[in-house]
Structures are given as C-alpha cells and as structure tokens.
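quick one: pyridoxal-5'-phosphate bound model?
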Amino acid sequence: MTNTELSHSGETAADALVGHTSGADWLARYSTSLMGVFGTPQRVLVRGAGCLVWDADGKEYLDLLGGIAVNALGHAHPFVTSVIASQLSTLGHVSNFFTSPTQVALAEKLLALTQAPTGSKVFFANSGTEAVEAALKLARRNNAGPQGAPRSKIIALEGAFHGRTMGALALTAKEAYREPFQPLPGGVVHIPFDDIEALRAAVDTSTAAVFLEPIQGEAGVRPLSAEYLQAARQLTADAGALLILDEVQTGIGRTGTWLACEDAGIVPDAITLAKGLGGGFPIGALLTFGAEVSSLLTAGQHGTTFGGNPVATAAALATLHTIENQHVLAHVLTVGEHLRAGLVAVTGVTEVRGRGLLIGFDLDADVAPAVVQAGLAAGFIVNSPGPHTIRLAPPLVLTTAQADTFLAALPAILQTAKESQ
Ligand SMILES: *Cc1c(COP(=O)(O)O)cnc(C)c1O
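yep, here:
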C-alpha cells in the first residue's frame, strides 16, 4: 500500500453520519429507498485511492472504468482534493449575480488549452447533459437561413448518446431511451454513422447544427474517421450550420490530446465538456469558438444556479493543472497503446477500438455482461456497453503495471464468463 492509500484509509466524517454495514445490507436499503432507474448497483463502494477502490466488504478493485471517464486523475487525488477543500472552506457558492477568480481563470484556461480563436467564450454547467442542453439552445439561435428562411433541422448520428434530459434525449439515438418520453423537442434527424454521403445529403440551408461525438462512447467506443470530421466541418461551414462536437466523454485528455477532434485538425463551432473536467467533481462546459457563434446566446437567454461555482471551477483548474504539469497526455498515449496491443493478443478478443485511454473491445461471444461480473469477482471494474463489447475508461494515471495485471487476468475472466452462460 502506498502512502496515499494509507492516508485515505481512515473513517470519514460522513461514515460517522451513516454508520457501517455490509454491502448486502446497503443494497437492500438501496432497493427500498432509491428510484429504480439504474437497476441494482454492482457493488457498494466506500473508498478510493488512485486507480483502486474498495467496497463495503473490504474487497479491492482496479478501477478500469473511472466512474465512466470521470475520475481523470483517479480517486482522492491529493492535489485536487486539497484545492477543493481549501476553496470550499473559503468561498463555496456565490450565485451568478457574482463571479469568482476560479471561474474566470478556468474559462481562460480552457480557451487556451483548446487554442480557441479570438472571441471564443465559455458557459459553465454541472453535467454533460446540461452542457448539451446549452449547445442545443445555441443551435436554436442559429435560426436564420438565407433570405430569412428558418433553420429548423438538427442532425445527429445513429448510435449517438448526448444525455438524458429532454433536449439532449432528442439528440440521443437509442429508441429504448427515447420512446417512453415522446414527444421530444422536434427537428432532430438521425443519419447513418461515419457515412459522408448521408451527411452530404442531410446538411442543407435549413440545418441549424450537426452534433457529433468524435468517438461514440456509449455505443461501444466507435471512432468517427478523420475524413468524416473534416467533411462535416466543410459541409456545415458551406451551409451555414454549426458543427457541435460532444466531447463530454472524449475531452480533457481521454484520448491523449486535450480534445479528441485535434487529430482531425478541425476547429468546430462549439464543443461540450463534462465527465473528466472536474477530476470527479461535477462540472460541465460549453465552449463556443469565434466571436460570431459566441454571441448567439445573449443576456437572459440561458442560466443555471450552480454552474461555474467556485468549488467546481477550482476542481477543474486543479485537474487541468495536474494533467498539464505531470505530462499526463503523453502517459495516456503510452499506456493506451500498451493496453490495446495486449488486448489484441488475447484469445476471444475479436476487435480493439479507441484512442488513448478510451478503449472498446469486442468478444467472440455475447458474454460481455458476464465478463463484467467475472471481472468484479477477480477485482477489476470494467463496463459492457453492448452484449459482446467491453469498454475501458480508466483514470488517465493508470500505470503500465496496473494495465498488465488486467491483461494477465483477462483470459481467466473470459473463461469464467463463458462457463457461467
Ligand atoms: C455521459 C455523456 C453525456 C451526458 O453526461 P451526464 O453528465 O451524464 O449528463 C453526454 N454526452 C456524452 C458523449 C456522454 O458520454
């Protein structure tokens, strides 16, 4: 055990409030008090340090999901937690009648890291779906086509996941998520994934915006080609439509660059960020590139109570500072390559996708949920976004040695999963 792990092993103030009991007891109480939208949680987690977490029964896990691409620097990162604690004990919330130094500094930092052109701006929210809602309202403001004709069409992709609130849900493709909540905000069409001709046919002067994830995370880590992103940039620019990239999952170093779209060499009109941005603390952001797009939403047209509060923005500043100063991006590329090369060599793995530390791999049988269970039993947290697909989105600070423990254990995990069918 490292010093960091030891220093976090004590009882928390919240532990004293809620008491101790077994995982089974917490889960029984969960099922009688929590709404059933998430099904039954896999484990009750009580503590984390770096890439490790522990459950209520004391079992240790290597966290290869990182709270779904959220815990960018792992759990209980000493610098991030100390910045959060010191900000919270100085000034925690001020309302948007006021601003605070961390809010301004974070906006400046994000614009600098993304090499945003002059006139670019930031809006802060508290989650991914809220960042997408802001982007959707931005798209609605791009409403005047040639000769005053309306722009009412918004384009998204088959397989897209943009969040669960009503606006973001209208962009999300999955029928099972959408159908119970019809009617959704209108005007959204879904077109085939990575199909340039389908995009060319869909984008016209009635199009307000095209929403794309550079890599579809929830759909099983499916990357759009650089050619597609470049074509999308050209087609939207020609038609006067906005190109909005949802980098909620892919941004903040997840793919080894600050933004996943950097590889394609394009500048979108706007991007959404959230998951990794606060290093585990809730925060979302909409970045608009250039003065024209940045002035589409004017005073009074959007708002939030908590968005951009001093604590969340301090957490994000600490996260970005650490990623930058500890050379985390280069590390992500190295460990990601290592993991993918190792996965390709495992019997039963048929395809490996993704960049940096957003990795999806397919199996030769529909056993992914059983692999998640067998992984937990063996002390590894992974995720199954589809029946034969496993997703890894570990903390960006995962070491090569930690990755190797998973690669070594995977054949037996796959074996156990297949036997359990
Ligand atoms: C997770 C995710 C969202 C939604 O974020 P929440 O914080 O869960 O609301 C939106 N877009 C993408 C690409 C995501 O991965």
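The first helix runs from residue 3 to 7.
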